Amino acid sequence: MKKKLAFLFASVFLLTACSAGPNGGGGASAGGGDSDAGNKQEGDTIKVGLNLELSGAVAGYGTQEEEGAELAVEKINEDGGILGKKVELVKKDNKSDNNEAATTTANLTTNDGIVAMIGPATSGAVKAAIPNVTKAQVPMITPSGTDDSITVSNDQVQDYVFRSCFQDSFQGVILAKYASDNLDADKAAIFGDNSSDYATGLTKAFTDEYDGEVVAKENFTKGDKDFQAALTKLKKTDFDVLYVPGYYEEAGLIIKQAREMGIDQPIIGADGFGDEKMIQLAGKENVSDVFYTGHFSTLAPANDTVEPFIDDFNEKYDKEPSTFNALSYDAMLMIKEAIENEDSADSADIAKGLAELKDFVGVTGTISIDKDHNPEKPLVVVGFTDGKESSAEKIEP
């Protein structure tokens, strides 16, 4: 008999919170010992770069991460800064373009003298940035780049690359188990984006773990708008759950068109669903029995830091914080803790501090960085009814 995971339900007054998605080789070993390594902290400020998708196709992710980082820096500076020095954010827009992300990284690390970088948001842009942070020996934390190969490539750990989010393989495994154990789904159909590393990684992880049978597979490409033909094929198939690995732009339209065609089976996806625009594109009336893996939910607070974070975010932005807000907020506070632990804001020391980070209490959970530079922390499966977050289930790794 299948074991059921219990839902955590919250009161109705809480509003919905949204969640997210070229290799570089490892460089010199991270962490101190080389007085010429990386960028040195100079003057009365600690410069941290933001390399985010603030315009273009996936600006929804980058703008949320900008908000989270800005709030974190505001709180840090109000409390006296880090090691007595104020934090300065140096913000640049990579325009949702991988080549631009690489150029932006070079400018931040070489011309602006940052000692750490937050972003990019998407896996492809992160991969494009890796060679330049490695060359400069400046650590970066991606809040939402979930592709497994970001932190480990060709069996080699990327010394200057970290993340505050979990990786695709973990999401795919959890979604496969969730489909079987919680949704009683013996047959799954997969409708995935075949144009992104993010989606193909999620598809593989789900397929490898799923106990049931994958009875149908269809593909789309980023930027597609009309999914009627593929959905018509899927509708003729006997399946219990529809798995849609992809980003919110296409996922919203797929949900809308699927529901309007009478496909009423549960729809599941990963953190790429996590933007309010997904609900806007789908239409609230169509977003029921929709579930995705997230890093944060106001319905399932990870610890006592969450409520003050929600209050501060509401006061600053007059809205509920999303997963992407929370992930970048944590990324900035991880940098702060690494600096304090090493008693140094030089970039090589920050990298060492991040690699050794243990039991950091963040709003997305208590985080310890593992040997592959990935965070060990809980995952949340968020459920929607009529376009509103109605359930959130915290699952420990």
From TrEMBL:
Signal is among the record's keywords: yes
Domain Leucine-binding protein, chain residue ranges per copy: 45-386
Signal peptide from the UniProt entry: 1-20
The keyword Transmembrane helix belongs to this UniProt entry's keyword annotation: no
Keyword terms of this UniProt record: Amino-acid transport, Signal, Transport
InterPro entries with a match to the protein in the record: BCAA_transport, Leu-bd, Leu_Ile_Val-bd, Peripla_BP_I
PANTHER family named in the record: LEUCINE-SPECIFIC-BINDING PROTEIN, PERIPLASMIC BINDING PROTEIN OF ABC TRANSPORTER FOR NATURAL AMINO ACIDS
Protein name: ABC transporter substrate-binding protein
Source organism (scientific name): Tetragenococcus solitarius
